[in-house]
Design brief:
alpha+beta, four-stranded antiparallel sheet, 14 strands
Length: 417
Amino acid sequence: MLGFLKRLFMPKRNVSRLSVEGDDISITQEVIDTSGAPLKEGHLRRAWRDPRLLPKSKLWKRKKVMTKEEAARLFSSTMRTRNRKLRDLLPDEEQLKRYGLPVWKTESDVAKALGISLKELRFYAIHRERDRFFNYVRFAIPKRSGGHRVIMAPKRRLKALQRRLLELLVNKLPVSEHAHGFRTGRSTKTNAEPHVGQKIVVRIDLKNFFPTVTMGRVRGYLIALGYGFPVATALACLMTEAERQPVELDDGTLVHVPVTNRHCVQGAPTSPALCNALVLKLDRRIAGLARKFGVNYTRYADDLTFSGPLDHKQAFGLVQIVRRIVEAEGFTVNADKTLLLSHARRQTVTGAVVNQTLGLSRQERRRLRAMLHHQSQGKPLHDAHKQPVSVAHLQGKLGYVKMLNAGQWEKLLGVTK
């Protein structure tokens, strides 16, 4: 009886005109659970609802529950979502404390933490279909494998806010122990070390890694960590952007129109660490698979590496299962960059050779030795593509060798002694 009365007085939403994939179209009314039950079965994050956004009773006169400015923000295009069960979520303070994250209940709390006004926060945390002031600088750099990589670097003010956000929030997000990229105390060296002297090395690349981490995924992740919908949306906007095309209107005004979804972009200070945190579940699933196969597993950004005493048939089976896990987690394997490297050929992991000892290849060391010889004779320096390079470039290469293998570095310096 008590349960019946409780359901009777629960707020109900008319969903007869809504059509969402997976919903039963025969249902015309949806009961909204305001008890603070877990957001998902088996999860700890509780679904506290904002009473201002719940359906109002028709039995009494409606009262004004928010200001005009609040309503304009909450019902703006930036705050839209297809999932109506997320729309009215409040923060779960216990969940935020559980992860050791800052408790930001409102956008005003975020603005205060960043040291800016609420108006300035909303200037950066809004998605515009026609943006007159594009806050990123777009350029391309050549890839080693050919083609170009698009970099979108935030302008000075936005970059400062993202760096502050990186310090206050993103660096505190949980990350897998198997992640070696963009982490303090981790490097390409620590990523390659577990794979030294193994029978076979398997390298798998994730295709379009950063663009796959969309604003919706970032927002959903922040909500799962305990943030309310408005705060999670604002934070996701601050850390993502869409690729944009400049368009000149009839009146001569130049606007920047999005041609992709908002996503984590290469060039933003928050993107690497945020993507590291978002693939925590992927890392854990693949690490469990690696233990089952008896192999080592590390990840550096979008490069997954496995090594161990496998034959080619077992390695191929591993790749197939990894592909299914990756796709189940919303990513795609780049088949063109999937490599099975046996001990009989050169095995490289994030640029380092791992066949017997960790270090640079013999070919790379010979090239560096020749550059050192040219430097000692005052001759111009050139890289492998016959392009001129600076002395600073050479010193950087030597520093990289020293980090990987101090013995190789000492032998190289012996040429100039």
